[in-house]
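#struct-queue
[09:14] JT: dropping the first one here, sequence first, then the structure tokens:
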Amino acid sequence: MVRVMATGVFDIIHLGHLHYLEESKRLGDELVVVVATDTTVRKRKHEPVTPEKMRLELVQSLKPVDEAVLGREGGDIFEIVRELKPDIITIGYDQPFDERNLEDELAKRGLSVNVVRMPHLDHDLDGTRKIINKIVEFHEMHKRLVEVEKK
């Protein structure tokens, strides 16, 4: 049995997330997804739109996902790897990790895990920031139209 571990924020679920998880699942028999905590998201990316418990529940409901767990706060980022014991860790095309460095760090801790960078599958709205920007643009356009109609 090959266990694959995928990680991410998963804030405003979109096709990029789904394809990342589908491709990750294809690499093994079981897919466990680690969803970043709100604190981690704030430190590394942005203020999350969707709270961690909701993101966790949404990710757990996705077809390719066998299990979803909330990430750990602070401390050793490799602790969850030790707990979940994956054979493969997949990282998204935009995640700021170097595959070889990650494998080396895992090996130093006695963890034999392959790290695979997943490909970028280009879509119009394949990122949370892209979705938010499109909503903001739509809102601004709507405001301008309302102002024109008032005149």
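[09:21] JT: and here's the second one, same format:
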Amino acid sequence: MPTVKEFNFKGELVGDFEVSGEIFDAPVHVPAMHQVVVAHLANMRVGTHNTKDRGDVRGGGRKPWRQKHTGRARAGSNSSPVWVGGGVAHGPHPRDYHQKVNRKVRRIALKSALTLKVQENNMIVVDNLKLDAPKTKEIVGFLQSADAGRKPLFLLHESNMAVSKSAGNIPGARVLHVDSINVYDILNHVKLIATPEAVRKLEEVFGA
């Protein structure tokens, strides 16, 4: 079975933590990860952008001048896109950017992303990650001791407002509940820091 390093909250190496090979040593499927990330970013778009075309702007009723013998270019309406104050040609309008991804593809992509973290030694397990009050200094000290200070992603098995607020002051850091794990955040962050309970939850949900 693959293993990852386990630390305590003081940043001291405790030992190796065994993880499921089915989840953390799966075949890496790059196309699946690409599809899921593209869909994730697309689904984040609101799609409320809107522009006025020539039928929505004010004016455009009367022909500005006669067709011929004026020495100027032909013009049929002052709402034309070539006129200042005219409508926008082929501008964006409200639309839905949602992309559907099959559940099987999402599972393959998630396993691939987690496997990459283990293969690149960018995943660690931290025991007893709890704070009674928000203290960014303690989180920073742990990250420095565990050599995990570059864009860390904390994966928790339960909500902890103190940890969330403390990590929120660290540039590039993010805290996720294990139920909200997604491929984009795993790949977008360098270090994955999970609690043992969060790892076991992943193995329970995405295992056989």
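[09:30] RK: nice, looked through the second one.
[09:31] RK: The mean pLDDT is 91.
[09:31] JT: good to know. Residues 46-96 form one domain.
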